[in-house]
Design a protein that fits this description.
Elements: E1 5-8, E2 12-16, E3 25-29, H1 31-41, E4 46-53, H2 56-68, E5 70-71, E6 75-78, E7 84-91, E8 94-100, H3 116-121, E9 124-128, H4 129-133, H5 136-151, E10 155-159, H6 169-180, E11 185-187, H7 190-197, H8 202-212, E12 216-220, E13 226-229, E14 234-237, H9 250-265, H10 268-281, H11 295-301
Parallel strand pairs: 1-4, 1-9, 2-7, 4-5, 4-6, 9-10, 10-11, 11-12
Antiparallel strand pairs: 2-3, 7-8, 12-13, 13-14
């Protein structure tokens, strides 16, 4: 099966504290898996590449991807490792994550797991800093996938998704920027970019990633929306106001919606506004996956007035 978008990374079983201490809602997470589902819900054909444990969480992911129409033929089952898990708590400063992922099946990905034929036949590859931070072998596998995509003229999208619990800043900066230099769409969040570049001004950050080699920078600005920049033009795009419940995975939803819409329109600014609205809609319920909107919802919401600056939900 050929697909439009190939995503590579680590899926994580999610336990979201929705009803107070000790009460958790089971769901699904993992940044690139969330992005894959978001893209599929916008109508794109998507394939996912990872390894899962031979466990209940792994089987639940296979069922999820089957329901969502995400091709999982390149997913390997590792009988000697488990599927990763994370917990989401909610506080005054937003959501807080705790992880049980050391030695996970996905962290044992190697270059041998990269399906060259699937990538070469696709239109876009999407990976992230987390995809590379989980292990040295996974880091090498992502670089191999990027190189195969570039040789085939396949669009490469990269979300920095900086997680300093997984690796030190110096290594993260070196690896992420090496990968960003090979990408077409650079997808940093403002907080990540400030840590990685030492810059605070969004336009300066956009210039930094354009100079690295990206053709498009989509810098999410939290409640301020998104700055989309190319070498020729840049625009700040707002989203819509929603009743925020849980922002877990909003940035991942942005990624999937942006790539799907960009492949459809070839217009990064149209894709930026579309993705910002999709991400806002994804914050109206608990969990990273369940609230991700489908295309009809996003298109209906696009007819609403844009929110005033600073009034939308936070998109990482």
């Amino acid at each position: 099966m050929s697909v439009d978008i190939v995503c590579i990374g680590e899926p994580l079983a999610e336990f979201n504290a929705t009803r107070g201490e000790g009460a958790y809602l089971f769901g699904f997470g993992g940044d690139t898996s969330n992005a894959a589902i978001a893209a599929a819900r916008q109508g794109a054909r998507v394939g996912y590449v990872t390894a899962l444990g031979d466990d209940d969480a792994g089987r639940a992911f296979l069922s999820l991807w089957a329901r969502e129409g995400v091709d999982a033929t390149s997913v390997r089952i590792d009988p000697d490792a488990s599927t990763g898990i994370y917990f989401v708590a909610h506080g005054a400063t937003g959501h807080v994550f705790s992880y049980l992922r050391k030695g996970s099946a996905a962290s044992r990905l190697t270059t041998r797991d990269i399906p060259g034929g699937l990538i070469r036949a696709a239109k876009a590859l999407h990976v992230s800093g987390i995809s590379q931070a989980i292990s040295i072998s996974a880091c090498d596998a992502v670089f191999a996938a990027i190189e195969q995509a570039r040789r085939a003229g396949v669009l490469v999208s990269y979300d920095s998704n900086l997680r300093l619990k997984l690796w030190p800043l110096a290594r993260a900066r070196a690896i992420i920027h090496a990968a960003m230099a090979m990408c077409d769409i650079a997808r940093p969040g403002l907080e990540d970019a400030t840590e990685l570049t030492g810059l605070r001004d969004p336009d300066a950050i956009a210039d930094f990633y354009l100079r690295l080699g990206a053709r498009i920078v989509a810098l999410t600005l939290g409640r301020e929306g998104v700055l989309v920049a190319t070498a020729q033009e840049r625009r700040r795009l707002s989203s819509i106001a929603v009743d925020l419940v849980d922002a877990t995975g909003a940035g991942d939803c942005f990624d999937g919606a942006f790539i799907a819409e960009y492949l459809s329109t070839c217009d990064p600014f149209v894709a930026g506004r579309y993705a910002a609205i999709a991400a806002a809609l994804s914050t109206r319920g608990f969990g990273a996956v369940a609230p991700i909107p489908r295309r009809a919802e996003v298109e209906a919401a696009m007819k609403q007035p844009l929110s005033r600056t600073g009034q939308g939900p936070r998109i990482a």
